[in-house]
Design a protein that fits this description.
single chain, 458 residues, alpha/beta, 26% strand
Amino acid sequence: MRVIICGAGQVGYGIAERLAAEKNDVSIIDTAPELIQAVRDTLDVRGFVGHGSHPEVLEAAGAQNADMIIAVTLHDEVNIVACEVAHALFNVPMKIARIRAQSYLKPHYQDLFSREHLPIDVIISPEMEVGEMVLRRIALPGATDVVRFAENKIAMVAIECLEDCPVVHTPLAQLSELFPDLLSTVVGVTRGQNLFIPHSADQLLPGDIAYVVTPKDQVRRTLGLFGHDEEEATRIVIAGGGNIGLYVAKTIEQRQSRTKIKIIESTRERAVTVADQLRRTVVLNGSALDQKLLLEADIQDADLMVALTNNDQVNILSSVMAKRLGCKANLVLINNPAYQDLTKSLGIDAYVNPGSITISRVLQHVRRGRIRAVHSVQRGAAEIIEAEALETSPLVGGYLRDLDLPDGMRIGAIYRDGQVLKPNGAMRIRPKDRVVIFALADAVRHVEQMFRVSLEFF
């Protein structure tokens, strides 16, 4: 696939890194020469210095032969114009744009990005995507990652196995025998630096991160069996009143009337704006690193500190300070991947990385075949993929135990006619089934092939 990426920041670089590793033909454009030089030095891609919305720059990058343009610069308008130019002059089939300003995304303006007006095929709103991820993490304390599939009927939760976890040192096959009505499947395990697909005879050990696919209505029971029965936070302090912080607070006000929220926002003008848009939330103006202000926000009595400022250092330090002042738990927004390895030693319970969320959304549309959703885990070491089975798929018809599935993948659940099914050897996949699969990076291409439309289908 020939792909042009506009924007060589963390997100653009991350997308280019993934696509180049999969042998796609990638060109990346940015106005900053140092970013393009870094891309040329480290990745097998072509780099171009210039504006991604300028026709001559797009032409030099190969837009006339491109299959897709992904516009993820820092400026919404540049992203919009880049897609418009790619459509009007070069007829690029797939156009993806990152749009941050919420004014573009209001429901009554939904026709704005139609083919007749601004022909953008996929709009990615990082603030809303990250906001929803934060809300899922708040709703399910104990999970280090949460993603939903199949019309929200299936969830993938990443769960840390602690020393007193009831299911450690037990073969996975035995868990199925002990809980026959539990439709959860352990599809992946991270042990130290190693991520692998477990077999039925394998056991979970303390310190493991288990990736579990389960029906939505069994998520809390699954967390309980892994020893995580933490109660949902009802007293929350949010650091940062930007788009994400405002979205999270506003949504919690709508969904959870019992939850008390306080926001700390450093800019006075923004604090006033946020306060005007919220009904029950208390907004405090000042720095989240100010211990007196944290105490004024009653951090010592809070269940959860959620740090959502634009500054990683502020997020990390304010969350560490909050726990030392008595806050029970914290959730931190971290943009720089280099900081993620430090979280555990610093006492950070959970973090969200906006870049990985955006990359996952893009991959959903890069993947060939009937791929409905993709979520990247462990910085691209594996993916959780939801795909629709076609009549021509090699998965259809035979018993699962007889299928020659490639190494490095495991089926976690099957969604059929509104029901979630746990896979077993005696099951057959039918056309139109939606299959949730955990695949290591080396196996992703095999998953794509299994769900592609064959020429014989026509």
